[in-house]
């Protein structure tokens, strides 16, 4: 099974804007995995959501997280990227707006539809990668 280069991993993440699986650790030490929207900025990944949710509480308690993005419908075309990293919760107003605009851009929205303000109760989980694990069964 072939791995992706960093450039290929970035291209893969950018080609799949939408959903990733975020795994955090709950207060009892068990994995807590949820589907969540994401986008990439440089090497980092951002996942959006509401403040005060379980994922946010989990990241605040234990910063080590993993993010999984995958594609394919058979073993022959299976591709995936597992990002293990350190998460932090972003709540700052100007930074939230910047991230909301980056997320809109990543989803392909025209600039005229990018947000000009952020509603109350929003937060992002910022993941700084520590380790990447990838697979690309489409490579020979």
Could you please describe the fold and organization of this structure?
There is one protein chain. This protein has one domain: Pnp Oxidase, Chain A (Roll), CATH 2.30.110.10. 23% of the residues lie in helices and 44% in strands. The protein has three helices and six strands. It has 140 residues and is of the alpha+beta class. The model has no long low-confidence stretch (mean pLDDT 93). It has a six-stranded antiparallel barrel with strand order 1-2-3-6-5-4.
Give me some keywords for this one:
single chain; 140 residues; alpha+beta; Pnp Oxidase, Chain A; 6-stranded antiparallel beta barrel; 6 strands
Our count of domains comes out at 1
CATH domain topology? Pnp Oxidase, Chain A
Identify the CATH class: Mainly Beta
Q: Summarize the amount of helix as a percent range.
A: 10-25%
The strand order across the widest sheet is 1-2-3-6-5-4
Q: Report the sheet-strand fraction.
A: 35-45%
Report the uncertain regions. none
Number of strands: 6
CATH homology superfamily: Electron Transport, Fmn-binding Protein, Chain A
**Silhouette:** globular
* Structural class determined from secondary elements: alpha+beta
Cα-based radius of gyration, to the nearest Å: 15 Å
Distance, first to last CA: 8 Å
The CATH architecture would be Roll
Number of helices: 3
The averaged pLDDT comes out at 93
Describe the sheet with the most strands: 6 strands, antiparallel, barrel
Q: What are the secondary-structure elements, in order, as H or E?
A: HEEEHEEHE
């Amino acid at each position: 099974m072939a791995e992706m280069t960093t450039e290929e991993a970035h291209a893969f993440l950018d080609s799949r804007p939408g959903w990733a699986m975020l795994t955090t650790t709950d207060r009892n030490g068990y994995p807590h995995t949820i589907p969540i929207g994401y986008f990439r900025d440089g090497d980092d990944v951002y996942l959006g959501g509401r403040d005060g949710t379980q994922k946010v509480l989990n990241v605040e308690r234990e910063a080590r997280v993993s993010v999984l993005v995958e594609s394919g419908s058979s073993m022959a075309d299976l591709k995936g990227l597992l990002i293990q990293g350190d998460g932090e919760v972003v709540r700052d107003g100007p930074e939230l707006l910047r991230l909301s605009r980056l997320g809109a851009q990543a989803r392909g929205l025209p600039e005229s539809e990018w947000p000009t303000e952020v509603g109350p109760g929003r937060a992002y989980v910022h993941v700084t990668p520590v380790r990447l694990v990838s697979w690309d069964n489409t490579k020979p």
